[in-house]
Amino acid sequence: ALAYSIRSEVALMMSLPLLLLLLSKAIHQKSRSSFLFPASGLLSLLVVLVLIDLAAYSGTTWSAYRTYNASRESIVDYDGYPAFDTHEDAYRTLGITESSYVAASSYYALAQDPHWTAESMQTLAEISAKEHSLEHVSGQVIYLRLTGQLIRISSEILRDWFETDNRPCNLISLVLFVLFALLTIGQLCKCRWEALIAFLAVLVSHYALMGYLYYIGRHPYRVTQCIYIAEIFWLLFLLLRYEVSRFPLFLSALVLILTVRFAPHKLLDTARTSASILTYSENYEALRAYTDAHPDTLYLTDTLSVTYFTKNALQAASYEANVLPLGTWCAGSPWYSAVFSSFGITDASQLLLDDPQSAFLIMDLGQEDPASYLTAYYEEYLGKEVNATVADTIDCSEDIRFYVITLSSAQPAGK
After folding, report:
1. pTM score, whole prediction
2. Helix, strand, coil percent values for the chain (each to nearest 5)
3. Would you call the peptide bond into 264 cis, given omega within 30 degrees of 0 as the criterion?
């Protein structure tokens, strides 16, 4: 239930190995009830969680947002935005200008253009997905492409067992797989089939989960390592089940050797990375102190400028009420809209423009005109010349500075 609440896709993914583990246990014990009762409980729990999730987000507003976010995720994480020059007519029909496309595709800025709706995102996601699909291709080409995909995914799965980022978990898992394969062969020589079924359950689970990750093109090691860790416990359990007297000392020595060889480097590297992120994140305290001192102003942040702001990420106040990113998953959500309403904003197209209650925050990265993508959008969308003014600066550290920028309209563009 906790896993589903944090990431429903991962909870559903891990249900497969759990079911296969229960199945192999039932076959070993020759007891249907040892599979049927726990499996029924697991599936029932998943059904209840899905129903609760659907009921909690069944309103019209949340339903539209989920459609929007699913399409946004498909575009941003997988297929990418359709090229504007190739699909200009589609963008224009949706009311999306070229500058708005640039702001969204290059800077993840979505909040300022009201045309980035659930319908427009869904339309663009379908266009992008169609460009990557196998439609309108001959049967022979489809066969060759699918075969090529299977070969690619299989080779990637094999290569992942030796990836540096996943050590030592992937190497321990691989060695345990080999040991269990040898044990299975020995069991088959004695006409015992239970070990083979258990081995196939683990192998199918591994290839199904890893294959899915490589198929969708999203396989960060924070996810693959979790799969390897689960497999290690599963394989150790199976090895000890079938060869209780022979394996404990050998397995302990093997795991210890691999851990001592690879774990210290991995732990130190992870500790250094985490420490640098936290240190970097502490630089934002000056930014937070500044926004806290101006509670009546709504600050819209450049999405790329706050990518690594992770301090207090699990606390309720990680997103301050008067600070919102222009993009990310939260743009367009009911919560996001509620913050706008609290500041009296009803028209997103007027965000930041001629509004003394709002300002734009962006990190100084040496840009000549840090707000250029916003001014370009407003000038094209509203037909007005827009001026960006640095109203204030926030020095977070020697290396990090933020600009507080306000936007004001002048005469119509070109006049």
Report:
1. 0.66
2. 65, 10, 25
3. no
Q: Pick from 228, 365, 250, 361: which is nearest to 298 by CA?
A: 361
Q: Which of 155, 153, 241, 228 is nearest to 197 (CA)?
A: 241
pLDDT at 104 over 50: yes
Helix (H) or strand (E) holding 237: helix 221-242
- Please give the Cα distance from 30 to 37 (Å, whole number): 14
3 state DSSP class of 324 = strand
The Cα angle at residue 111 between residues 108 and 117, in degrees rounded to 5: 100
Helix or strand or coil: residue 410? strand
- Give the three-class secondary structure for 183: helix
CA–CA separation, 190 and 184 (whole Å): 10
Distances (CA, A) of 193 to 19, 178, 185, 190, 236: 19, 17, 10, 9, 19
What band does 135 get if pLDDT is binned at 50, 70 and 90?
A: very low
